[in-house]
């Protein structure tokens, strides 16, 4: 594999994803998701924002101590207290990364930070240098990059790289850009940086116009090598770029993008269900890749086509992403083994005692209902007080 074409997947479900209104995950839930993200094979897990709360600090620390394989990142504003707190939690990780950020747009500088551009520049450089004293891997994010003055942004990017940033992230914080525009924006900044191979450029797109995935893919075409995203696209406001959609776009259109990711595709569906169950954020039926209807064929013409040859109406196989469409229908004759298998596919790992109780409830329900759907199983587990 040509290393230049290797894309690093930075998952921020546990940080930006948790910033979805109404979502709050406890330490155990975060750890369970982080372990599943490691099984899926993401390169970086942003585990949280350690200074935000004692719970978030504990979650980042526990994940840093426990989850092996991916880089574990923690967010810090560009100040010393945040960076110290982030490091306190991250220092246990096999591969830690401090992720520090500061806004570069005039709107943010004037109204939110009340700082001049030169004050911002000095603060960003100081933060990166300080973070590097603790950690060899430091990411700097220029918040609201896409609404920033291009010359000033290029100056900040060059300065933070000289200060020691190993990754530079250019977020479309308010989901304001469109694909062609974003591709040009990323290309311009990357080209303006001398020795740009020594740093990894990253994209982080929000979905306010429903373009987060399309913009992220454009950023990768422009030369970004890290993409920040969340499972099911959860996150602030309309959310972040959806991890599963990015992965499957790169896979399905490999001939076009020619980019490689190192992912276990058949863990996608399970990860999606786990995140939905633990966050309580439902997945819309027509959601690409992981929605209930993503591989359903309703019309007679489509059904006929798929029965003759599935590629007539399926651009990827459901099995590839871990959706076992052809599973036996669960009903009153189904056994414990089939029930347990279905639970695993849905992201539920139950203890023996929990499984026994859930199976008894399932049998009761199966006496009343001919076919038991995935939603029925999840409702049943929720009644039992088990979200996952
Ligand atoms: O959207 C954003 O700008 C962010 C940064 C903190 C990376 O989430
Ligand atoms: Zn964000």
From TrEMBL:
It is an enzyme of class 2 (transferase). Mn(2+) binds at residues 16, 204, 206, 240. Pathway: Amino-acid biosynthesis; L-leucine biosynthesis; L-leucine from 3-methyl-2-oxobutanoate: step 1/4. Its cofactor is Mn(2+). Keywords: Amino-acid biosynthesis, Branched-chain amino acid biosynthesis, Cytoplasm, Leucine biosynthesis, Manganese, Metal-binding, Transferase. One of its GO terms (biological process) is L-leucine biosynthetic process. Its EC number is 2.3.3.13. Residues 7-269 form the Pyruvate carboxyltransferase domain. GO terms for molecular function: 2-isopropylmalate synthase activity; acetyl-CoA C-acetyltransferase activity; manganese ion binding. It catalyses: 3-methyl-2-oxobutanoate + acetyl-CoA + H2O = (2S)-2-isopropylmalate + CoA + H(+). The keyword Lyase does not apply. GO terms for cellular component: cytoplasm. It comes from the Bacteria. The keyword Amino-acid biosynthesis applies. Transmembrane segments: none annotated. Catalyzes the condensation of the acetyl group of acetyl-CoA with 3-methyl-2-oxobutanoate (2-ketoisovalerate) to form 3-carboxy-3-hydroxy-4-methylpentanoate (2-isopropylmalate). Homodimer. Belongs to the alpha-IPM synthase/homocitrate synthase family. LeuA type 1 subfamily. This is 2-isopropylmalate synthase. It comes from Syntrophomonas zehnderi OL-4. The gene is leuA. The chain holds residues 1 to 388 of 510 of the full protein.
